[in-house]
Specification:
The complex is a heterodimer of chains A (about 500) and B (about 375).
Chain A lengths: L14 E6 L3 H12 L4 E4 L29 H13 L3 E3 L2 E8 L5 E7 L7 E12 L3 E3 L12 E3 H11 L7 E6 L2 H11 L7 E3 L4 H4 L2 H5 L2 H16 L4 E3 L1 E7 L6 E6 L12 E4 L2 E6 L1 E3 L2 H5 L4 E3 L5 E3 L12 E3 L9 H20 L5 H24 L15 E3 L4 E2 H10 L5 H8 L12 H8 L18 E2 H5 L17
Parallel strand pairs in A: 1-2, 1-6, 2-3, 6-19, 8-15, 9-10, 9-15, 10-11
Antiparallel strand pairs in A: 4-5, 5-6, 7-16, 12-13, 13-14, 17-18, 20-21
Helix pairs in contact in A: 1-2, 1-9, 3-4, 4-7, 9-10, 11-12
Chain B lengths: L8 E4 L3 H12 L4 E5 L14 E2 L8 H19 L11 E5 L2 H16 L5 E4 L3 H4 L9 E5 L3 E2 L2 H11 L4 E5 L3 E6 L5 E6 L2 E4 L2 E4 L5 H7 L7 E10 L9 E4 L14 E8 L5 E7 L10 H14 L7 E12 L6 E4 L6 E5 L5 H17 L21
Parallel strand pairs in B: 1-2, 1-12, 2-8, 4-14, 12-19
Antiparallel strand pairs in B: 3-7, 4-6, 5-6, 9-10, 10-11, 13-16, 13-17, 14-15, 15-16, 18-19
Helix pairs in contact in B: 1-5, 1-8, 2-8
The chains are: A alpha/beta (about 500), B alpha/beta (about 375).
Chain lengths: ~500, ~375
């Protein structure tokens, strides 16, 4: 049964489980839990399941073979089929802005529907357990010219292609760092774009330092080979230890300068080469989207690539009892790992709620698979961790925060002259990160510039609103009218 | 200029109060070392709205402080760079009914005797001051002396304006006080070593009680949590600091329970700030949907136009609160060389300059600008452990 989006709040009783995010991890968790007998609500902002990885065209676009842009599509179509057959209440178009633990130990998930139009409406879902599968967003590092039209996120370019079947340009340089670049370049080339270069800041040699993780993950190696073969077929050259250090153009991208980097990612003088292009797809890996969890106090851990993920126990539970997480929220690792963790979490939740052990054999197998893929993910993250020298790409005039137009020079001034020492005080003194994106775009860069030693200190700030919420929506939350009021204002 | 390890005075805390103490001490020619375990404005200062208010204060010692501070801020606004965003915007207190208006009138009359300027705004003139106010209000009072600054810049620029006489030691936590043979202050011990000075100023805000304890004295500073809701940037829809008047009936409560009131103001950068809540829950940083609901409901009741506006962020801070709602300012007779400048509750930004002036006067043996007896740090009886 799929609940109608117009009346999802009709249940007085809590669900056994609420799952936030209907990508690989969330789908797998919801389907598994439902098949084990739990009542499940699955919330997602999108109108379709699949998340970022299995993003696909709306039916109206009439794509004949959406799977042509994906590998492993059968795993997704299998989950989709099982979801339809399960009793899961799928709640698409739900933007979750907060999760709260109630006094009785249950969870309340606060969401809004219709957030894109005028029909915004608050929704509350209660559940005995919560599984966060909110995925990740792209990490950006600024450089001169990165705000020119024609510069798009690498993940964004792929999303445009997967959901709208459109390309950001005809001649697209793909740059940044991380395994996503190869996948993006392959997709763009397969869709007909010319890709004059893939520019990867790291070297791939670091993978070789962890042969065990490579050997035990033949699937990942095959995936890399697949992309390598795709790039060869489309004659896409890959330049490692290099970065786009400047974008040229007046109204939009006309060319980029690609410069060699040393081991710390410092540009090597005199090695800049100009490459003509009309678009640049750039990204520096992915950042776990964990605001909902950190707001309720979940412990985080620093990942090898300098981002923060949730600290999870062996069965995917966070430091807050009753709150589980799966997929990229615990560290970026891809769709297959996400599916595994989703199922593992669902089994642990069912065991907890139903008070019985559920299939130790299957759980053990999932744990081993998870550990193996997690180990590979950590090797990958370490290989693509930004070196401190990337800051040398910036001039003082380069905008770091696009929303509030704060330049690198102003951030440096706040640190050198005004006593800022972290992303929060830089934000207070410059407004960097105070705009609409709330620092999702500039957070990494600001944190690096604020840190005295240049090492990326991940922003760990709690963000109570995972999405912006109307005041009328907040005002309509049910409250306790009997509580006393002290209208004495705050004087500072 | 102080050497790396010796100066005339050490200020513990780089919030706005510590910055003002350092600033005014440096102006008298003293060399100052400011120590903070975090960055500048990393505690309650960074979570404040920056209000410089006289309108909310009963006649009494705190109002006297506020009136002097108001004049000092006007001076500082000339001296400090424009990033401080000093704005003499004025406050507007509104009442929803005639009994509320009567209470406001009586309150304003008493304040006037103490030196506060205010003007009654009848119902039909309210919208000249604030065009978007709800149409159902009974009237209000306009307080032209109320103003606002940007708190983090206020602290940073006060320190910077102190020039070479102020040396900053950030990311260094004070772990103990150094004392001489007769218990007099000789400096502080930090996580990075020792700093020597004959005077130490406790400007540690909400953590001022803990610093007092390191000196072996009792100062019961407690955290009182407050949330602020921040909207998306808007063109100027709220011109003054606007708040509801019912507070006259219930000023200065010491209750631990959640209390909220509608306080709404625009900022030069565009977002509207919505406060204010108070609750004594220790240093709990968990989001409270009930607080957010009340803040949003209060703000949209005053300004219905805000209903469709989105909140993009909320943040919280911990006001340093002392049981009688007055700060502790001045020398501590129990420890020679120790001065306190903390416990300003929600008024620290506003009262910072006068606090700094008092501390500088005490350090140099000059007469403070007012009678500081009500703020004496040893006024709280130590309770048995």
């Amino acid at each position: 049964m799929t609940a109608s989006p117009s009346e999802p709040d009709v249940r007085a009783e809590p669900y056994d489980l609420a799952v936030v995010g209907a990508g690989s991890a969330g789908l797998s968790g919801a389907v598994t839990a439902s098949e084990l007998g739990l009542s499940v609500a699955l919330l997602d902002t999108s109108s379709q399941t699949g998340g970022q990885f299995y993003r696909h065209p709306a039916p109206a676009l009439g794509a004949v073979r959406p799977e042509a842009l994906h590998h492993d599509w059968s795993a997704f179509s299998d989950l989709r089929r099982r979801l339809a057959a399960s009793g899961t209440a799928h709640l698409p178009g739900h933007h979750v802005w907060s999760t709260v633990r109630e006094a009785d130990g249950t969870w309340t998930v606060h969401a809004v529907t219709g957030a894109d139009g005028s029909g915004e409406r608050p929704v509350r879902i209660r559940a005995r357990a919560l599984l966060l599968a909110t995925g990740a967003y792209e990490r950006q590092l600024p450089f001169p010219g990165w705000t020119l039209p024609g510069v798009v996120g690498a993940g964004g370019a792929q999303a445009m292609l997967k959901s709208g079947l459109v390309l950001p340009g005809r001649r697209i340089v793909v740059a940044g760092s991380g395994p996503l670049l190869l996948a993006v370049a392959t997709s763009l080339a397969a869709a007909g774009a010319r890709v004059p270069a893939v520019v990867e800041a790291a070297g791939y040699l670091r993978y070789a330092r962890s042969p065990r993780a490579l050997v035990t993950n033949p699937g990942k190696a095959a995936e890399a080979l697949l992309h390598g073969a795709g790039l060869l077929r489309h004659r896409v050259p890959v330049r490692v230890r290099s970065a786009v250090t400047e974008v040229h153009g007046t109204d939009r991208v006309e060319a980029v300068t690609v410069t060699r980097l040393d081991a710390d990612w410092r540009p090597v003088p005199g090695t800049g080469r100009r490459i003509t292009c009309d678009a640049l797809a750039v990204g520096h890996g992915l950042v776990p989207q964990i605001e909902l969890a950190t707001t309720v106090g979940c412990t985080t851990r620093r990942l090898p690539d300098g981002t923060l993920g949730l600290a999870l126990d062996d069965l995917q539970e966070t430091s807050e009892p009753g709150l589980w997480a799966a997929g990229e929220t615990g560290g970026v690792g891809g769709a297959e790992l996400a599916r595994t963790e989703g199922e593992l979490a669902a089994r642990a939740i069912a065991a907890r709620l139903l008070g019985r052990r559920s299939g130790e054999g299957r759980t053990g197998e999932l744990r081993r698979r998870r550990d193996r893929m997690r180990a590979f993910a950590e090797v990958m993250a370490a290989a693509h961790a930004p070196g401190p020298g990337w800051q040398d790409w910036l001039t003082d005039a380069t905008d770091v925060c696009r929303c509030e137009e704060v330049s690198a020079g102003r951030v440096r001034e706040a640190v050198a002259d005004l006593g800022a020492r972290d992303a929060r005080t830089v934000k207070l003194l410059t407004r960097a990160g105070m705009g609409w994106c709330q620092g999702r775009m500039c957070g990494t860069a600001v944190a690096c510039l604020a840190a005295r030693d240049g090492a990326a200190e991940p922003p760990s700030e709690r963000r109570p609103f995972a999405v912006p919420v109307r005041l009328s929506t907040l005002a309509a939350l049910d409250g306790d009218p009997a509580a006393p009021a002290d209208p004495r204002p705050d004087a500072s | 200029m102080p050497t790396r390890n010796t100066s005339d005075v050490i200020v513990v805390g780089a919030g706005v109060v510590g910055a003002a103490c350092a600033h005014y001490a440096a102006r008298t020619g003293l060399s100052v070392t400011v120590v903070d375990r975090g960055p500048v404005a990393g505690g309650t200062t960074g979570a404040g709205e920056g209000n410089l208010l006289v309108s909310d204060k009963e006649p009494g010692p705190e109002l006297e402080l506020a009136l002097i501070a108001t004049a000092l801020w006007r001076e500082l606004a000339e001296l400090l760079p424009p990033q401080v965003e000093y704005e003499a915007k004025g406050g507007l207190v509104v009442a929803s009914d005639e009994p509320g208006m009567r209470a406001l009138r009586a309150f304003a009359a008493r304040q006037e005797k103490a030196g506060v300027t205010s003007q009654e705004v009848p119902e039909d003139r309210l919208h000249d001051l604030e065009p978007h106010l709800a149409p159902t209000l009974a009237g209000g009072f306009h307080y032209p002396q109320d103003a606002q600054v940007m708190p983090a810049h206020a602290a940073a620029q006060l320190l910077r304006a102190g020039g070479e006489r102020i040396s900053l030691r950030l990311g260094e936590e004070v772990t103990g006080l150094l004392t001489g043979a007769s218990g007099e202050i000789r400096g502080v011990r930090t996580t990075a070593g020792e700093i020597h000075a004959p005077y130490v100023v406790n400007a540690a805000g909400t953590w001022g009680g803990a610093l007092a304890e390191l000196a072996g004295v009792h100062l019961p500073v407690l955290p009182r949590r407050g949330f602020v809701l921040v909207t998306e940037p808007l063109p100027r829809v709220v011109r003054h600091k606007v708040y509801a008047a019912d507070y006259v009936a219930d000023v200065a409560s010491g209750s631990a329970a959640l209390q909220t009131s509608a306080v709404v103001e625009g900022t030069p950068a565009g977002p509207v700030l919505i406060g204010a809540s108070r609750e004594r829950v220790g240093f709990d940083r968990t989001l409270s949907p009930e607080v957010l609901r009340r803040l949003a409901a209060g703000a949209t009741a005053l300004f219905p136009v805000l209903g469709t506006v989105r909140a993009i962020r909320t943040y919280l801070g911990f006001r340093p609160y002392l049981p009688d709602h007055l700060p502790a300012i001045g020398p501590d007779p129990r420890v020679p060389g120790l001065l306190h400048a903390c416990g300003h509750e929600g008024a620290g930004i506003g009262l910072a300059p006068v606090t700094g002036q008092i501390v500088a006067a005490c350090l140099t043996g000059a007469a403070p600008p007012l009678d500081i007896h009500p703020f004496r740090p040893d006024r709280f009886a130590a309770t048995a452990p």
